Amino acid sequence: MTEHYFSETPQSEMRTQQIEVELAGAPRQVTTASGVFSSEHLDRGTEILLRFLAAEASTHDGTAVNEVILDLGCGWGPIALSAALSRVDAQVWAVDINARARELTHRNAEALGLTNVMIADPESVPADIEFDELHSNPPIRVGKEALHGMLSQWLPRLRVGGSAHLVVAKHLGAESLQRWIGTTFPGFEVARSARDKGFHIITAMRES
Length: 208
Hints:
By secondary structure, this protein is an alpha/beta fold. It has one domain (about 15-205): Vaccinia Virus protein VP39 (Rossmann fold). It is about 30% helix and about 30% strand. It has helices spanning about 45-60, 80-85, 100-110, 145-155, 175-185, and strands spanning about 15-25, 25-35, 70, 90-95, 115-120, 130-135, 160-170, 190-195, 200-205. It has a seven-stranded mixed beta sheet, sandwiched between helices. It is globular, with a radius of gyration of 16 Å. The mean pLDDT is about 95.
């Protein structure tokens, strides 16, 4: 069976490496490894999402505190780490089915001195937690059925007024995913918030 970055327990040898990436406006040394998504560099889609989120944060008035943010499909952690670095008052949940990804996110959070990152497999997140924001470069290649199941599990856990920001390549179905979210979740306002280098940022805000 082919091993994917969305395998629960990668069987390949864990070959770690140090790479430098820009997170929260500064260069950071992080550890990545084989068997996780985009282990050689910061994925283009993730880079675009982080740039969008930074621009969004710059328009806020700064009064929100104690927010709860979900990074869905965290990989080695760039989205969760960036959120935790930028918003020290937030509680950031880094969730991934891949045990190796969770281990790397833990290593990176520890190396960066972050204490506001909670790392868990999907089944270990307490059921009573609601999220203010969901950030994700979702695993499109897991297949439409599994992807829809994942979003059906987590989008309803946004609190009213909360929002999800997903980055998806146009050629991998960004437009069809936006339509599916809009028809499946009538309590959400869904729109394309940005477009960059073939990637779309889909924003879904929970209104009710």
